[in-house]
Write a structure and sequence with these properties.
Chain lengths: 80, 288
């Protein structure tokens, strides 16, 4: 099982690749909506990408209020 | 853009020969063509094929043409050309604006009329002797999910997501989604999706038996065409008889769903839920 830091790193890499944002511009505590410039449909895309990558289910309501990569990583880590 | 009543001169077709006259049309929100025995209905209304009054009118025109084309075809494929997904469901902004412009009883009557009309279209697809395939990607929510559920097979690209978000508005799915999902899957699955309002991805949807094939990103239509080509090898009367035997239309529950939807729609909570959605600037309005 990956460590929390590894999970966080994978999320940042995946988000950077999928939304074509330079990886070095993304930081763990940043608001990912702003950092990635994504709308609601793209947020669902990100959710699907994460679920497929980590082979987990993330109920949408668990993401309510989550806006930074580190908290997101914690939600995923809890389901690995 | 040509009128739906006209036959197009430049039909968009995939590999194969288009069948001439009356078997193709292009409208502002959808178009269709009959090619090699397969009717392809493409949805292309901005932003994500929301189902409002204009979309319904076009679907009804398609339904009329569909009846005429059925004898020349063995399969129907419904797919979306919009990047965001297959269909984001009912046009909630239109629903809210229209309901604001009239008294509640009149608004409820209008909603019932809309539901009965869209049920007629979806029942026609559901009961068609053709084998029907929804090729989906991205957002397949609410009414979009219900459109897919009217089809015999759902082929999903791995980025597809399915959801019944209606409860957050104080409503239930109104386009036949509950009876059809209950028919096709267990009641526990229906309760999970209906009562939590959560969305599930294509892999999960396949695990629970909703999706027949999960394919790579952008591959759903190709896979649907390959499946449709295979279906063309079978005796049509046998395939139609098999479908009729195994896929009953839950007419009574569909009717009761309309009644319950209208009953719920008349409550003040719905207006508040619709207003919240329409006025939301939240980046996550699609999340429960």
């Amino acid at each position: 099982m990956p460590t929390a830091e590894q999970t966080l790193d994978e999320i940042l890499n995946l988000a950077a690749t999928h939304f074509k944002v330079p990886r070095e511009k993304l930081s763990p505590d940043e608001d990912f909506f702003k950092a990635l410039g994504i709308d609601s449909l793209q947020t669902l895309d990100l959710l699907t990408k994460l679920e497929n990558h980590f082979h987990v289910e993330l109920p949408d309501y668990e993401l309510q209020g989550v806006s930074d990569f580190r908290t997101l990583a914690g939600k995923i880590q809890a389901r690995l | 853009m040509q009128n739906l009543n006209e036959t197009t001169k430049n039909i968009k077709v995939h590999e194969g020969k288009a069948t001439p006259a009356n078997c193709a049309a292009q409208g502002s929100g959808l178009s269709w063509a009959l090619v090699d025995g397969v009717i392809e209905l493409a949805l292309h209304r901005e932003p994500c094929n929301e189902l409002g009054s204009a979309a319904l009118e076009e679907l009804e025109k398609f339904a009329t043409a569909f009846r005429k084309m059925e004898g020349e075809a063995h399969a129907l494929i419904i797919h979306s050309e919009m990047k965001g997904g297959f269909c984001a469901g009912a046009d909630l902004r239109e629903l809210y604006q229209r309901s604001q412009a009239m008294e509640k009883p009149e608004a409820t009557k209008g909603v019932r009329d809309f539901l009965e009309r869209i049920h007629r279209v979806l029942n026609l697809i559901d009961a068609s002797p053709l084998t029907t395939i929804a090729a989906v990607h991205g957002v397949t929510f609410g009414g979009g999910f219900e459109l897919a559920l009217a089809c015999d097979l759902i082929i999903a690209d791995k980025m597809a997501r399915f959801c019944f978000p209606e409860l957050r508005l104080g409503l239930i799915p109104g386009f036949g989604g509950i009876p059809r999902l209950k028919r096709d899957l267990g009641n526990a699955v229906v309760r999970d999706l209906l009562l939590t309002g959560r969305s599930v991805n294509a892999t999960k949807a396949q695990q629970i038996g909703l999706v027949s094939q999960v394919v790579g990103e952008g591959e759903a239509l190709r896979a649907a065409r390959a499946t449709a080509a295979q279906l063309g090898k079978f005796d049509r009367a046998t395939a139609a008889a098999a479908k009729k035997f195994i896929k009953p239309i839950p007419h009574e529950e569909l009717r009761r769903e309309i009644d319950l939807f209208c009953e719920l729609f008349a409550r003040p909570a719905v207006e508040a839920g619709l207003r919240k959605f329409v006025e939301s600037t939240d980046a996550q309005p699609y999340l429960p």
